[in-house]
Amino acid sequence: MGDVLSFRSGAGVTETPVALADFLGASNATAVRIQPGEDVRALLPSLDRIALVEVAFPAFGDGRGYSAARILREAGYAGELRAAGDIGVDQLIAYTRCGFDSFAPDKPLDPALVETTLNRFADVYQKTVDGRQPIWAKRHEGTPHA
After folding, report:
1. Counting Cβ atoms within 10 Å, is residue 130 exposed (0-12), middle (13-18) or buried (19+)?
2. Which of 8, 66, 86, 139 has the most other CB atoms within 10 Å of its CB?
3. CA-to-CA distance for 128 and 93, rounded, in angstroms?
């Protein structure tokens, strides 16, 4: 696994994440790793003590982790949310829109390309958990039906 890319303020979590089953088994860990197919909702009662949720992306085409991220952010999770595994620079916008704020790619990503990718579009079309206002809502600002 390559270096961790973080878009959070302050230092990232360095604790090694434990498997979900280990975490739920009365672990005192504050970092947990979610594998594809595991139900992230099992973490909801413990969100206040979790510093890092690392979501595994073992293959490019496996998008289940996007849903896990959105579930956590919509439930109020404010800790570090890391996508790990087969992370492509072309997917970074989608990852961040779902709530991921750090990345542990299997292969290093070109920092200049990451920067260009994340700043390519000033506006977004869909409302998601990242708090950015969609362009359709901007268009209706100040109107009674906004």
Report:
1. middle
2. 66
3. 12
Give the integer Cα–Cα distance in Å for 40 and 1. 23
Measured CA to CA in angstroms, residue 100 lies from 68, 78, 139 at distances of 10, 10, 27
Percent helix, percent strand, percent coil in the chain, to nearest 5: 35, 20, 50
Fold of 5-139: Rossmann fold (3.40.50)
Domain positions in the chain = 5-139
Amino acid at 139: R
Strand partners, 73: none
Q: Summarize pLDDT for 110-143 with one digit per residue, the tens.
A: 888 888 887 787 766 666 676 667 767 777 776 6
pLDDT in tens, 74-91: 999 999 999 999 988 888
Q: Is 18 strand, coil or helix?
A: strand
